[in-house]
Every structure is written in C-alpha cells, then in structure tokens.
Amino acid sequence: MGFRLYILMRKEFLQFFRNLPLIIIVLYCMTIDVYSAGSISMDIHDYPLAVYDLSKTEESRQVIEDLREPFFQITHVLQQEDEIEPIIESGAVAVVVIFPEDFSRKMGAGEPAQMQVLLDGSISNSSELAAGYIANIVARRNIELMMTKWNVTPSAEQVVPQVVSAKRNWYNPNLLDRWNFSLMEFFVDLTLIGILLIATAMVNEKQFGTIEQLMVTPLRTWEIMVAKIVPMVVVLFFASFISIFVILVPVTGIPFQGSVVAFFFVTLLYVTAISGLGLMISTISSNLSDTVLFSILVLVPIMFLSGAFVPMEAMPNWMQTLVHFSPLKYYIDLGVGIFLKGNSLIFMWRELVALTAIGAVSFTVGALRFRKVFR
Amino acid sequence: MRFCFRRYLAVMRKEFLELKRNHIFFLMTILAPVIFYFLFAYGLPLDAKNSPMGVVDLDKTATSRELIDQFENATDLFNLKVVANDYDEAVREMNLGHIRVILVIPTYYSQKLKKGIPVEVQVLVDGAYPNTASLMGGYVDAILANYSSQVLAKYAATRPGYAAADAVPIELMASGWYNSAFRSDDFMVPAIIALVMIFFPPIVATISLAREKESGSILNMYCSSLSKAEYLLGKMTPYVLIAYANFLLFLAFTVFIFDVPVRGSLGILCFFSFFYVASVVAIGLFVAVMLNSQVAAILVTFVGTVMPSFLFSGFMVPISSMEKNAQSMSWIMPTTFEIDMLRKIMVKGAGFSYLHKDVAMILLFCFGFFGLSIRLFKKRIG
Do B35 and A301 touch (CB under 8 A)? Predict the structure, then answer.
C-alpha cells in the first residue's frame, strides 16, 4: 500500500516538472511578483509643494527653508493668487503654503501670525501625511521662536522644561513599505498558487479523461487524494523557501527575526489548510479555466478579509467579524509574528489553534466532497 | 468586405443567449463584481482612526495623567486600550498586534518637569503596517509638540521679568480642499470603481473567445460569411454592455452608500467611462486573439492587467510620488487615466479642460486594442 502511494506521488512530481508553464507561473509569483509588489511606497518623499509668499521676509523664508528636506521639494513659487486653483485642480501639486502680508509684522507684535496650508483632499492619504509633517515642522519652529522670545533658550547654565518625543518604530524601523508589501504579496501568492496547484492537479485528470484510469486502479480514494496533495505541498514548501531566501531576505532586505523552523512549520500547516479549498474547487469545476476562475473568486475574499493591506481595526465592524474566519488572517499573524517580530510559537498559541481549527474544517469538508465525487 | 450591421446583431444575439445559459458566466459578470466592489470599498480604508494604544505610566502622578489625557481627548485618533503597569506587559500586547502604539512615561516625569528639566517620553510604534505607522506617528508627535509648548508657556509665565506668555508665534491654518476631513472613502472608493472593472470584464471577454478557439466552435465562424470586425465586435458588445451596467451600478453605490460627491459633470464622466469599459474588454479580447490556450489567456490577463493596475495605477499612491520606473508603468494601462478622471470629476469637480490627457488616453486604449485585435485575428486554421 505504501508502495503504490509512492508510485502515484512520483507520477505527480513528474507531471509537475514536465509542465513548464505551471513552473514558470509558480516561480514568477514567488520571485518577480513578490519583489515588484514592494516597489511602491505610500510615504511621501520630495513631495511637490508650492509657496505663495506675500510677506517676503526673513521669518517666512525661515519656515520655507524648514519645509525643504526630506519630505517636500518646492516646485512652484507663485506670484498671484489666481495661480493657486489651477495647479491644485490639475494635480501638479497637492500642497500650497501661503504666508500673508502681515506675517512677520504680527509675529513681531506678539500676535499669532497665520500661515495657511491648502491641501488636495482628493488624495487624502498623502495629503494627511503632508499635513502631519508640516504641523510638526511648524511646531518645532514655534518652540524655537518662543524660547528666543522669552529668552529661555536651553544652554549649559539654563535648562528648560520640555516634553520630547523619543519615537521608535518597531519591527520596521524606517517604515519601509517595501517590507510590508512584499511580505504580504508572498502570503497572498502562496495562497493563490496553493489553491490553484491542488485544484489543477485533479482537474487535469478530469479534463483529459485520465481520471477513468485512476478509478480502475486498486488505489483507494483517500490514497489518490493524499498522492495529489503531498507532492503539491512539497512544491509549495520549496517555492516559499526560494521566495524567502532568494528574494525577501537578501533582495528586499527584510531581516528574519524569528525561528525559521517555526515559520516553515506554520507554512506547512497553512498549505495543508488551504489544500482543502483546492479539493473543494476541484470537485465543482470540470475544466481548467473554471478552476482558475473559482480560485480567483475564493482568493480575493480571503485576501481582503485578512488584514493583509490595512490593520483589522480600520475596517467596519461587520467585516472584522468575518476576518476571524479567514485562514490567511491567522497565517499572516503567525508569519509576520515570527518573521518580523521574532515571536515564539508558544506565545501565539491562540492563532495557532485557530489556524489548525479552520484548516481541519476546510480539509475535512474538502476531503468529504472529494470522496463523494471521485469514487 | 463591408461591415454589415445585421450580421453584427446576429453574433451579438448568439453571444447573449450563450451568456444567459451559462451559470458561471452569470456569476462572473453580475454577482462577483458586486461582492468584490464591497470587499474593496470596505476593506481598504487607509486612514488610521481609533488606533488601539497602550500606556505605561511609570510616574503615576497628576502631571503624567495630564499627558495621557491629551491622547484620550484626541477623539477618533487613539483608543486607549491598555494601561499597563510595566513595560513587558505592553510589549507583549504589541507583539500580539493588539495595540499599535505604546506611550511610556518615565519615572520622575513630573519631578523633572517641575524642576524645569526636559523629559523624554518614549513612543513605540508598530511598524508592521508602515502607512498606518506614519500617520499614527504624525498624530503622536503633533500631540506631544502641542503639549510641550503648553508646558513651556506655563514655565515662561512663572519666571520673573517675563510678560505673560503671549500667543503661539505661528498659527497653522491647514485646510483640505475638496475633502476637508481627509476621508479615505473620497480618495479610494471612486478609484475602486475603475479597479473592479479591470478584474472581471477582461477575464470574461478572454474566456469567451479562448473557449471557442479551444473547443473548435470557432471553425463555424471561419467558414461563414462573417467579417472579422463583425464577429469580434458582435461577440464583445454584450460584455461591454454588461460591464457598463456594472459601472453605473457601482457609481450609484459610491454616491449613495459611500457619500462621495459628484462635483463635476456626470454626463462627461458617464460618456467617457463607456470607452474605458470598452477598452478593458478590448484588452481581454486582445489576449485571447494572441494566445490559443484558455488557461494561459486567463492567467496572462490576470497577471498582466489586475496586478499592475493594483500597484501602478495611482490607486493607492499618487503617481507623482512614485519612482520613475513605476511612473512609466502607469502609462501602459487605461486604469490610470480612468482613476484620474473619476477623482477629478467626482471629488475635485474639474472641468473638461483638465481632462484632455485622460480622455485621449482612454480613447487610444479603446480603439487601439479593438483595432489591433481585429487586425491580428486570423480567420484561418494554423
């Protein structure tokens, strides 16, 4: 019995390695795609900014100087008020800083000098980041101005009370979007090809009619199922190994903080869990194109309900409830926990239990459907 | 051969009938796009509101309480979830992803301030979601800077020889045009209309032609009197019409469910969006004309249209802040221009004079891909 299982598995491996397009897709997803997902950055650098300075004084120039690096670059110096609307409307700049004529006069008189900032709200995320950076730049300048004015400048003999923010970003110290996007793409791609490979391995037999030959062999249904799943799990295992140690760690530059063994243990668990979905799809689709479509249809909800792109707490409540049923959520929690944060598995036992439970359910349902259809 | 309208209509009718009798197609053209629209629209909020926060107060005085209050009073921004007694407890919660920011108030915090010594307050931000982290970090810094200037003002006022601390030197008046609250919905949801359209119509169009090629039923067309244009256009028209109906439905959802305004001309938006919808169908058609295998055609359409549209269309990041390579990638798909047009018309209320580039590119993609497909389609075997 063990022998015929081995023979069938060998056949599956042979079949996979002779299917060049499939190998190319798997490699593309796990290397180039994972890498290129990291090529966009949501943070702003050298963000185009326009200045409309009516005051033209030392004080306003000082603030403009502060704005320069590294977040903004001053691309437009406006001379007239009616230039403002077209450049924002056309999208040439998203930030306009205006200093009114009485800017330095008011500052000298001890009145608040107003500095106006117009932001393009239609690109809300970048504008909000820009607003935050400007607010901090101005706040720092304000503190300096106040100290000079009240003659309480900190020096060797004089200390001044202040609450200083010592901010540190954990897990991703420079907040590189690249780390996050590439890592999430890896999780998502592994899910896609995981479902796809297991489903196609079965549907291929259906489409080419070789399923009849399998049925008349002495192999039992569960043996066929195991022989289909195990080779694909092995392939996925190696594919993720390549993705991590050829792309994510050396090229994308994400440090692997936790235990590699724990990470691959969790990956194995996850791949087994989604193989249940692959089995289910293989029972409802009769040809390869349906398989691909169903895989995409299953993948996207799992992906969006996982917290792969935005943290869970930002979603509406009904959606947060659904997130608890997505196996990808727990895999990401565990994967990111081990990879980026260096957590130990015991520490995340809740996630581990949840992933095992979801995996057990999906695998059982898949296996039962499979037995019903292929016997 | 002249273009015969009657023959075109006949192909179109046949395609409609086929569509009606195929359950998977029904699922793909009507049900799935609606589900996807809602998943995208609700599932990608970019703003960092109500971020769960933890505080480690090692000082435990009225002064430290005052600082914590600054965060509690910042409504909508932070949600004070954990008040830990020690550092390790808070770190554990952060490692589990239950909180995203930790504020550590050191011992002797109030004593130092009273003596007039600067105090460092440690802020630890969960960098696992970099965008959220940048936003949260910005809020924290702003709150602390604001509080620090209050402390400074109080201190200056107590010192002899100084007039009562007068107002803040520079008063920042920031205002967001078009979307003063920086609502993520106004930014994301219009773009999501264009993005969902790149998901299904091209794939469905690809399948409809690739399937006929694979099953051999295309031979019927080869030996008929149909011209290439009549056949391909007739075949694609149902998909364009269904996709356009989807588009109008999503536009209505966006306006009525997500409260995104339409400040510009609805007429211009709907008119030119028709060509966008047609152009995405044409992309699917083009792939199916070039490839013979169904699976390959589906995967090429998916990898070639959906993935780049997600990354390079300016959907999450404005194109101006992308790197040079990514900026050039944004030119190769119509989605970039449709997203730009949707945002400009709906949120900015921009007039037609600001839309020349978008409209020209959408028309180019539409007629270009249909033209190429008709040109390269071969009405022969082998």
Answer: yes
